Amino acid sequence: MVTAAAYAVTSAEGAFEKTTIERRELGPLDILIEIKFAGICHSDIHTARNEWGGTHYPVVPGHEIAGVVTAVGSEVTRHHVGDRVGVGCFVDSCGECDACRAGEEQYCANRVTGTYNARGRDGEWTQGGYSTHIVVTERFVVSIPDGLELDVAAPLLCAGITLYSPLAHWGAGPGKKVAVIGLGGLGHVGVKIAHAMGAEVTVLSQSLGKKEDGLKFGADHYYATSDPETFRSLRSRFDLIVNTVSVNLDIDAYLSMLAINGTLVELGLPEKPIEVRAFSLAANRRSLAGSMVGGIAQTQEMLDFCAEHGIGAEIEVIPASDIDAAYDRVVASDVRYRFVIDAATI
What we know:
- The protein has 346 residues and is of the alpha/beta class.
- The protein contains 11 helices and 17 strands.
- The strands form 4 sheets. Strands 3, 4, 5, 8, 9, 16 and 17 form a 7-stranded mixed sheet that branches. Strands 12-11-10-13-14-15 form a 6-stranded parallel sheet, covered by helices on one side.
- Strand 16 (315-318), helix 11 and strand 17 (338-342) form a beta-alpha-beta unit.
- The chain is globular, with a radius of gyration of 20 Å.
- The two termini are 19 Å apart.
């Protein structure tokens, strides 16, 4: 067994406390990673505070992991000691269903195993990246190219692939008009990626408070959705809209912005069911879709793309002792744009 220092929470109302956890013994196909940085995702907050229900305590969150390989199992071939690597939102899948065989492990028909708060196929609960070390099977570990610093790469393991996957799937690129709803931890990465893909990018934000940032990240246009004129002036404009916010919006209003055959993709997870009028979809033959993170192969593709185009997350690096304060700031939208924990402080 490998003993790792970690920060865990033991109840929905509790604060994070330093502890030690046991990682499994290195198997033939396993990799031991010394974690250097771990991003804070809003999913971490939902889980730590049991806002989605089903949290198994104690829990060590964190599925935006960047680090260095320190040991490998006897049959490992993809990674070597000293390699810069990353681990994202899941660490296992059945490997046999149609989704897994297609490289879409995130949609595993037999249950993908999350990086934390998930019962693994060995019966043990997984613990995430707010720790010094993690053991992961090699096929769920990706390489971080030399062109990406580990701290700005960490959030790409969730935020980056969450945006890259739908943008690639729905063909964002030259000649396409793409809108990103929200310029937060997800949205700011989406703007950078869509711009690098060659699309004409528009940010739809509640206010113009982040307009300067949005244009700096590559947006061609920036509109405030609090202004009713925005919806009138942008009617039937976009080929693709990606919604990164997790609040219930007037989906019909946003669907009206789609051109013929346009698609609105839900990435945020609002608390209440989405309501939509059938006519909003019938008009212009519009589609309302959803997307999760990408598979392992696509995650590697995303990292290579980001390295090629110089794309990293905008981050604020914090010591592990500041996790609770960082959570409160994320909830208050007081971060530009992603917190990253320095694992050396754990």
